[in-house]
Amino acid sequence: MNWRRRLYTAILYLLSPYVIFHLLWRARRQPEYLRHWGERFGRYATRSRRPVIWLHSVSVGETRAAAPLIKALQASYPEHQILLTHMTPTGRETSQQLFGDSVLRCYLPYDYPFAVRRFLAHFRPQLGLLLETEIWPNLVEACHDAKVPLCLVNARLSQKSLRRYARLGKLIETSLRQFSRVAAQTGEDAQRLAMLGAQGIAVTGNLKFDIAPPQSALALGRALRQGFGPERRVFLAASTRDGEEERILDALQNMAVPGLLAIIVPRHPQRFDAVAQLLARRGVRYQRRSAQQLIDAETQVLLGDSMGEMFTYYAACDVAFIGGSLLPFGGQNLIEACSVGKPVLLGLHTFNFADAAEHAVEAGAALRVADEFELAREAQKLLLDPALCQRMGEAGLAFSRQHQGATGRVMALLQDRLSPYNT
User: Fold this and answer.
1) Cβ distance 259 to 233 under 8 Å?
2) What's the chain's Rg over C-alpha atoms?
3) Which has the closest alpha carbon to 325: 264, 368, 389?
4) Alpha-carbon torsion, ordered 270, 271, 272, 278, to 10 deg
5) Got the DSSP string for 120-184?
6) Same domain? 326 vs 235
7) Are 124 and 44 in contact (CB under 8 A)?
8) Which side of the chain, N or C, has fewer Cβ within a 10 Å radius?
9) Is position 358 annotated as part of the catalytic site?
10) For residues 227 and 176, what is the distance between their CA atoms, to the nearest angstrom?
11) How many Å apart are CA 345 and CA 366, to the nearest integer?
12) pLDDT per residue of the chain (423 residues) written in tens, 0 to 9
């Protein structure tokens, strides 16, 4: 262990009390954080009798993005067991919803040397796939020592993240050079990863374009829309972040759309109650999706406090605003809305999906708004013009189909890593 990694590890140990406090603090809103603590330190009860392909997806977005790749791996390597690791309870719950018992799931341990060694010794993966930008120096080193091929797939790196990782210097460069394969989403991501020291990078595209809207979700969305009343126009604010709901409510007040119904879906489930309290304080007539009740004609807002129904909400709306972009959070996934054929509105802050956002705007599938006032103006224009909505929706469908194929390219890249085990 070189001095840089020694220093990094020493800092991790010094932060151990904070790690425990953080779990307890998060458990105030999400009690699930109190469960499976042993897994976070390399203690596991489940074990596979089959050879393991391990894939790490931190939370909800990464887990959903992994779905096409997981299905492809299961089809091509049926004798292997897929192991999914997460860092958040919502990621774990999403995994259960999407894959049920067809995969094993657990928490990835924190990046303590003893914990990551326990993890690898317990599951003995034949291949590890880390999604997006999960670069943990001790984990990468332990995989290298244990001769576990490790790949970074669907990799993305914003300019902001580049600056943050660059501060780690040789530590991050050494880790990146130990990856067997690096599959970047875009050429820009590849260039930034190369600046940090990654080698042999392939540009494979974004796996999220390969996610097919489930027919069951689309059918439920259409049924939900009928329940709203066919004459009502429906505005969706999807995956909103803290502070955005206030601005969205201000925008709704400035929309002159008769019978308008808004659906607000907070990004994080621990905020469902807080958003409900905000609606009550503002005097908004609202209902909660979790109540499973018919929507009253006087209801102004449906609070989307359910998990795993985003495609349903897209299918039920006329116009979708993608949250995390009105304030500087970097934006959430706009690709799903485009794949359902809905016109998309975006704020200015989309650095998490920079390439997809720019291409969607260029394709005529999305419009940018600077603030809640522009959001109100552009949403109203679309809601009152079904023909314009249809044109943007069709552009979104074409845009999403044009960028599909990342799963096949990633599978081809991984083939030589797995072919010795495909007996």
Assistant:
1) yes
2) 22
3) 368
4) 150
5) HHHH-EEEEEEESS---HHHHHHHHHTT--EEEEEE---HHHHHHHHTTTHHHHHHHHT-SEEEE
6) yes
7) no
8) C
9) no
10) 51
11) 6
12) 788 899 999 999 999 999 899 889 988 888 889 899 999 999 999 899 999 999 999 988 899 999 999 999 999 999 999 999 999 999 999 999 999 999 999 999 999 999 999 999 999 999 999 999 889 999 999 999 999 999 999 999 988 899 999 998 999 999 999 999 999 999 999 999 999 999 989 999 999 999 999 999 999 999 999 999 988 999 999 999 999 999 999 999 999 999 999 999 999 988 999 999 999 999 999 999 999 999 999 999 999 999 889 999 999 999 999 999 999 999 999 999 999 999 999 999 999 899 999 999 999 999 999 999 999 999 999 999 999 999 999 999 999 999 999 999 999 999 877 765 554
Question: How many domains does the chain fold into?
Answer: 2
181-184 and 201-203 as β-strands: parallel, antiparallel, unpaired? parallel
Two tokens, residue 124: 């003995």
What is the distance between the alpha carbons of residues 272 and 280, in angstroms, rounded to a whole number? Answer: 13
Annotate 46-87 with DSSP letters as a single string: ---SS-EEEEE--SHHHHHHHHHHHHHHHHH-TTSEEEEEES
| Residue type for position 200 | G
Are residue 97 and residue 176 in the same domain, yes or no? yes
Q: Does a structural domain hold residue 21?
A: yes
Q: What is the CATH number of the domain that holds 187?
A: 3.40.50.11720
Tokens of 93: 């719950």
Same domain, 148 and 115: yes
Residues 190 and 60 in one domain: yes
Name the one residue in this structure whose structure tokens are 């129904």. Answer: 309
Place of tokens 């603090």: 25
Domain span holding position 357: 215-402
